[in-house]
Amino acid sequence: MTITLNDVRRAASAIRGRILRSSCDPSRTLSEITGAEVILKFENLQFTASFKERGALVKLLSLSERERRTGVIAMSAGNHAQGVAYHAQRLGVPAVIVMPRFTPNVKVEQTRAFGAEVILHGETLDEAASRAHEVMVQRELTFLHPYDDEKVIAGQGTIALEMLEDYPDLEALLVPVGGGGLISGIAVAAKGLKPAIDIIGVETARFPSMLQAIRGLPIHCGAATFAEGIAVKQPGRITLGIVRQLVDDILLAEENDIEAAVLLLLEVEKTVVEGAGAVGLAALLNHRKRFQGRKVGLVLSGGNIDLLILSTIIQRGLARTGRLVRLGVEVPDHPGSLAEVTRILGASNANIVEVSHQRAFTRLSLKTVQLEVVLETRGLPHLREIMAAFQTAGFRTTLPDADDSRNTGVEI
Fold first, then answer.
1. Active-site hit among 52, 59, 107, 151
2. Can 52 be counted among the known catalytic residues?
3. Among 76, 184, 301, 337, the one annotated catalytic
4. What is the pTM of this model?
5. Does the domain made of 5-51+150-316 have the CATH classification 3.40.50.1100?
6. CA-wise closest residue to 292 among 25, 33, 41
7. Cα separation of 48 and 410, whole Å?
8. pLDDT (tens digit per residue) in 292-346
9. Given a cut of 80, is residue 118 above it in pLDDT?
10. CATH superfamily of 321-404
11. Residues 110-125: what's their mean pLDDT?
């Protein structure tokens, strides 16, 4: 292994005062929920909202004067792009960033705002990387790899130095895994300081490339994931070697679990994370027995999430917990029925968001109308009270989404 604890320490010295030393704090509520003692590292609070600044800056500071004058190029789905663009601008280094076309608009615009030239190309990071290498040769630029670079890896490892300085009794770290730069740096630093600590990687189940590579399996990935920041089909050569040597296990997180973790962090910690930043909590929630009673550090690696996606997550989360409900109510088709429905809802302290009805697309009797009422409630117990009130009044109610409760509905 070519990267050592001393390399990470030198990286920490190089970036000290140039990078936010992000807060590392316990979460009482998440600890109660999971049964572990949860410590959160808020890398989503970096200036570009991602840990990627660390490795990007370490690499930029290592460039020769000629390389700085000529400029750099990187490929990225967003966070590495912003880290490179921001610190290149601060150091006066021209930067070109190649990004896949699916990259969230917020990341594209923020990268441009830092003065970088942005080229949108391809559907995947691999396609963006191919284009980046073509431009690199054409313009004689220096390539800044997002993860498979010793300087970058050492920079990411500074996170572990800070976490163990603040909480030397940490027993395990849950770390997002894409190409492996973050977990490699953290593993080198953490194992160097505390060999007995468990380093657990977390990949999205749709892009399990590191796990497959470690097991010697053919790499098969899905088409897309909500955690696009770790949607990497090919782990790095350097990172794969480090992960094989130092990482204790890799867990997989499903899309719905990542989504729920984003919402939980928003509700409990009042902090915004992107999908890739929430995979550690998603894994912890799914493997509570494994970590119960242990002091576990979670790296919230980034917070660059599209507002439309975040809005959808909030709405779906409210629906899952019964705080936003689509309720079907069968009513007699005569004057006064709607008024009676609204009276019952008002008496139950439910807030009506939307009401619709139709007569044609139903198997109900000719003199019966199906109302669909979207309600804001206080949660599932309140919803049960509302449905009981309708039953008492002689109205039959249904939950149209109940059969799809894993995705959009509720279970009562």
1. 52
2. yes
3. 301
4. 0.88
5. yes
6. 33
7. 36
8. 999 999 999 999 898 889 999 999 999 888 899 999 998 888 888 889 999 999 9
9. yes
10. ACT domain (3.30.70.260)
11. 90
